[in-house]
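User: Run a structure prediction on this.
Assistant: Running it now.
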Amino acid sequence: MNKQTYTQFLQGEIAGFQDGEPILIRELGKRLADTYHMETKKACAAATVAVKRLMDTGVCPDLRFFAKGVYYLTKKTVFGETGINKEKLIELKYLKDASGYETGAAVMHKLGLTTLMPVERTFVSNNAQTRTRKDDTLGIVIRAPRISVNRENLFYLQFLDLLNIYDDVPVDAEDPYLLLGNFIQTRSLDYGKLLHLADAHYNSSTIMKLAHVAGRQGV
């Protein structure tokens, strides 16, 4: 039987995180539940109390609060304290275990389809509770997927989303359909599966653009 208190146990767990690495209450709660054989809900509640105690008592002087259920360890530099790794937090909250993907103008910019630098980034995630909302703490937009995202369909849905928003973004690449075709080739996507998903979950404009991409690739 573990003779440590919950607070002592979590102090040790927190010490194992890197500076800036997101520390999620739900993860600490899971570790607490596994170690002390507790219900997850009860363990998360206990973790919330224990982490607050660690901060209030100064036992973990480098521990910082970022948002509800999210903490991180900081360190002092000549420029001030370091912050949380937001890219890692986005991954943990919305993309972990192939549960989501980035979409929107930012992805089109990365692919060379547009020179537009978007003000904010957009992500599609199974963890989105509504169709579209903004995560103000991370400065990103979160959308629910058309169908549940998994490892098998992630890149298919990401690609079809790009075709779906194609007309809403100022595409200025010299040969955009070639670039889109490269996306398909690089990820070894199947045109038959793309067409099936497009027909089932997207509009006729998306299907037409898929046909243009296939034609450019000589399919």
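The longest helix spans residues 40-56.
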